[in-house]
Write a structure and sequence with these properties.
436 residues, alpha+beta, Dna Ligase, domain 1, 5-stranded mixed beta sheet, 18 strands, 40% helix, globular
Length: 436
């Protein structure tokens, strides 16, 4: 089996850890070779809080994926999330020494590297620097400045920042599980790869990924990511509330939520009742579905309102920033009955559930097209993309160098952004090695 076109996505979530091995088939679709899943024990709200348990869960998921695919896993692409993630906007500029020459990738790289040197709060590190739009000599709203003349190159950036210790802990778990970290990506970015179409990203869309411990948000407009946020609660708090409200154990609460739960209380009749076996020798408990969905409804409304606040902060109310494609819900929480209707009701925005099956080959198992696997599929896609760009970069260099025509050299920028990210990943790996 060719090593080149195989990658592994590892989603370290609060409720589950998923490892997916896959490759691109001849039609450019994702062919899943194997998948492993383990209950996640050492992660709380997207952040590792028990190293030993997390390592065990990672190993369990990886071993399962290996035995299904008969392929040894060496390196993985990992998603980073958690309540420590924040994003900010920043604009920066460089003055070019020679304005007689056209702007090329090295100028953009210099500008992006300059942003990477920003002084963060103690214990924070920049994860992504995503250029929004450029200005050349005061001329605004330029999407691709490569090939233009100008003395001053300016850009607005969306900067994603995370806690160094949390990122290091994830790296440590991967290393201790006997794996290499080939790349690290913000989870909402990975999920959006898997479930959003290019048209939606152009029109403007908010991706809401409701996980077990966190709810991630990514907003796209004009094909560019504009805003990211991580809200520190997800499906787990709903289970917690059911557990408290009905005085039952967590396992039962989780089952109740997934089997009978609904986010819309009007659906259930007063006389619909579920009987739950009592603990050792105690009477069974009777719970009305009406009450169950009231508990769920209250919590889901709270999560959605927090997310909607972030959407408003981005500026959805302004005409130019309007999200025409509305909202896409994904993650395990999107499987909750009637959640789509509730989100539409609260936000007044068009909503659909995002399934990661658009990029999967037709023969894929049904299980994987569930919204709960969106992040893992997205991470796998990121890994395959990085492998592809490594191969094409060597070819690309030969083709691109003699050309000066601006139209033809635009793709270089894309390759370059990837390479800047790879550099960051290298720096990050070095940083992990030193930390050992």
């Amino acid at each position: 089996m060719e090593e080149d076109n195989i990658a592994v996505g590892l989603d370290i979530g609060t409720t589950k850890i998923v490892a997916i091995i896959g490759k691109t088939n001849e039609y450019g679709k994702l062919e899943i070779l194997g998948m492993g899943k383990a209950k996640s024990m050492g992660v709380h709200r997207g952040v590792v809080n028990n190293i030993t348990q997390t390592i065990q869960s990672i190993q369990q998921a990886v071993e399962e994926a290996e035995s299904v695919s008969n392929h040894k896993i060496k390196d993985v692409v990992v998603g980073i999330a958690g309540q420590h993630i924040r994003s900010l906007h920043h604009s920066d500029y460089i003055t070019r020494s020679n304005s007689e020459e056209v702007i090329d990738e090295s100028d953009i790289e210099k500008l992006i590297n300059q942003v990477h040197k920003l002084v963060m709060l103690p214990g924070e590190e920049i994860i992504h620097v995503l250029p929004q739009d450029y200005k050349v000599d005061g001329q605004a709203e330029i999407k691709a400045p490569i090939g233009m003349y100008g003395a001053r190159l300016e850009a607005n950036f969306h900067v994603v920042v995370g806690q160094v210790s949390s990122i290091r802990n994830v790296g440590r778990c991967i290393k201790s599980a006997g794996l290499e970290l080939s790349n690290i990506t913000l989870e909402p970015l990975a999920s959006s790869e898997a479930v959003l179409s290019q048209e939606e990203k152009e029109a403007g869309v908010a991706l809401i990924d409701i996980g077990g411990g966190t709810t991630d948000l990514a907003i796209f407009k004009d094909g560019i990511i504009r805003h990211t946020a991580v809200i520190p609660f997800g499906g787990g708090v709903i289970t917690e509330d059911i557990k408290e409200g009905c005085s039952i154990i967590e396992k039962q609460a989780e089952l109740l939520k997934t089997k009978f739960g609904s986010a819309w209380p009007g659906e259930n009749k007063e006389n619909e009742i579920v009987s739950i076996p009592g603990l050792r020798g105690r009477e069974p408990k009777e719970i009305t579905l009406k009450n169950l969905s009231k508990i769920i409804h209250a919590r889901v409304v709270e999560i959605i309102e927090q997310v909607y606040l972030e959407v408003k902060n981005y500026g959805h109310e302004e005409t130019k920033k309007k999200l025409i494609a509305g909202i896409v819900l994904t993650g395990g929480g999107a499987e909750l009955k009637h959640i789509k209707q509730l989100v539409e009701y609260i936000t007044g925005m068009d909503t659909r559930i995002g399934y990661p099956n658009e990029h999967l080959a037709g023969s894929t198992e049904v299980d994987l097209s569930s919204p709960a696997f969106a992040t893992a599929v997205g991470l796998l896609m990121k890994g395959l993309e990085a492998k592809k760009s490594e191969i094409s970069k060597t070819k690309h260099k030969e083709v691109v160098e003699p050309q000066t025509n601006s139209k033809k050299s635009i793709p270089v920028e894309k390759v370059d952004r990837k390479s800047i990210f790879e550099k960051w990943a290298d720096k990050f790996r070095e940083f992990l090695d030193n930390a050992e």
